[in-house]
TrEMBL record:
It comes from Streptomyces paromomycinus. One of its GO terms (molecular function) is protein-L-isoaspartate (D-aspartate) O-methyltransferase activity. The gene is pcm_6. This is Protein-L-isoaspartate O-methyltransferase. Its EC number is 2.1.1.77. One of its GO terms (biological process) is methylation. Transmembrane segments: none annotated.
């Protein structure tokens, strides 16, 4: 029997869950108790589920206060906005665009940040304001700068922060640019994911400072990276755990419908048929997608399931020049492939997967990231075990 069994939903029960998991540590407990999550969750929410990108239908606090309260005090993410605020009706929108992050993720990232009293902190993505409040309690509100691209979200977060007794610097703007006027910073933390660490974040961080951010390739797979910034304008560090955040708006990638790739013709159009012994199911785990995505740039997967348990894995490049499909049928050892365009996308995935196998099927903890200086071109390299072992591609 766990310590929280039988406890009613509320801050104390959530604290017990998080402490049992080891994500809420004793040094962050005072901030948690001073800044309860429910003060920073809006009335209209779409409760999520830990470890899954899936939301329940909307819950309105005034209509169903018990369900709202229980959702707020689960260790799960809560979607608070769809389609950049364009969708406000019943049900769900197309793409979630803001949330209250899963508490386990919040405190895991704060732990990785190693923030102390008096540290100057830049937060990218104010969201509901809860993370900014926790940082303000820890470092002092006068030392916290938080940037939010959405004016409505920023306004609401500012109101909640003030009601809770905190007034950090709140800025409406593009988080990719950081906030140069208030730096340099000892710590930078992003509550949105990136596929390339914005150079202003590095430039605005003191030598020896730390950047904590969710990072992932276009293909999929994502983890939190902890970077240390060096005096020469570079930064490097390891990935510390799996994550799944909404993308920084400045780095979103548009996704074209498959019909755009087929040129209006029926599948398989001019696709070239072949077979493969690698099942599409083998390449779908989050850490595997990460290893593949680093090696297969600017490509997007999409799985189309069928009622009989079979499915089709679609691969598309962002340039809309190449596509591939792989059909998975349960029980088979050979799978039908069609590929079209200058890139043989499935072949690229197979090469990347076989590399991952040869390295001992590594998880996120064996990967790291180096971000180069301003004169180093793109200068961003993912490596395995050490910076001297860059991942191919």
């Amino acid at each position: 029997m766990t310590v929280h069994d039988g406890m009613a939903a509320g801050p104390e029960r959530l604290a017990a869950v998080l402490m049992e998991k080891g994500t809420l540590t004793s040094d962050w407990l005072p901030a948690y108790e001073a800044v309860p999550r429910h003060l920073f969750v809006p009335e209209l929410i779409w409760p999520g589920h830990g470890g899954m990108n899936r939301q329940d239908d909307r819950v309105v606090r005034d209509d169903d206060p018990d369900t709202w309260w229980a959702a707020v005090h689960r260790d799960a993410p809560i979607t608070t906005q769809w389609d950049d605020g364009a969708y406000t009706g019943a049900g769900k929108g197309k793409v979630p665009s803001s949330s209250s992050s899963m508490p386990t993720m919040v405190f895991s990232m704060l732990d990785a940040l190693s923030v102390e009293k008096g540290h100057r902190v830049l937060e990218i993505g104010t969201g509901t304001g809860w993370n900014a409040a926790l940082l303000s309690h820890r470092a002092g509100a006068e030392n916290v700068v938080t940037v939010e691209v959405d004016e409505g979200s920023a306004r609401d977060a500012r109101r909640r922060l003030k009601a809770a007794g905190f007034e950090p610097v709140t800025v409406v703007g593009d988080g990719a640019e950081g906030c140069v006027g208030s730096g340099p910073y000892d710590r930078v933390i992003a509550t949105c994911s990136v596929g390339s660490v914005p150079r202003p974040w590095v430039a605005q961080t003191r030598s020896g400072g730390v950047i904590v951010a969710p990072w992932g390739p276009v293909y999929g797979g994502e983890a939190v990276v902890r970077l240390t910034v060096f005096g020469d304008g570079t930064a490097a560090g390891r990935f510390v755990g799996s994550s799944a955040f909404m993308r920084l708006r400045a780095q979103r990638v548009g996704r074209q419908h498959v019909r755009e790739y087929l040129g209006g013709r029926a599948w398989p159009a001019d696709g070239v048929r072949s077979t493969t012994s690698l099942s599409p199911e083998e390449v779908g785990d989050w850490h595997v997608m990460f290893a593949i995505g680093v090696q297969v740039p600017d490509a997007l997967p999409w799985t189309e399931p069928y009622a009989d348990g079979s499915c089709t894995l679609w691969l598309r490049d962002t340039a809309v020049t190449s596509w591939a499909t792989v059909d998975h049928v349960p029980g088979r050892r050979e799978f039908e492939v069609y590929q079209y365009g200058p890139r043989k996308l499935w072949d690229e995935v197979v090469v990347a997967y076989r590399w991952w196998e040869r390295q001992g099927r590594p998880g996120f903890e064996r990967f790291g990231l180096t971000v180069g200086g301003a004169g180093d071109g793109e200068g961003e390299r993912v490596w395995l075990d050490s910076p001297e072992r860059p991942v191919p591609g």
